[in-house]
Amino acid sequence: MEMAAKERILLMSMLPATGDIQTLKMLRELRESLAFSEEEGKAIDVRIEQSKDGQIQTIWDANKAAGLPPKDIDVNGVLKALVVKLLQEMADAKPPTLEDKHIELWDLFCG
Questions:
Q1: Which of 28, 37, 45, 72 makes an SS bond possible with 61, Cβ 3.0 to 4.6 Å?
Q2: What is the pTM (predicted TM-score) of this model?
Q3: Which ranges constitute the DSSP H helices of 35-76?
Q4: What are the two backbone dihedrals, phi and then psi, of residue 49, each rounded to the nearest 5 degrees?
């Protein structure tokens, strides 16, 4: 599945940190494939910062990220189903928690 830099960053931020051991191993592999090479990171000025309230944030230059070519990410059936479930839960929440930034991921995984 071809994924733009913005989609890769957003998906990494959504992946759960807990689960059964098999799922955790698959998630680790997915995170590694979504990760940016050193060269890509420099090209889009990606960095991790801690906000004043203690939250960790990934910051990048969106204009430069738009210029990166998409990366082919292998998202197998189990992981794809997990991402679809995460997005669907956001859509079904009361009130829904999907945001404009999720549209591209929704189209990739659910569309």
A1: 45
A2: 0.85
A3: 38-43, 62-66
A4: -135, 155
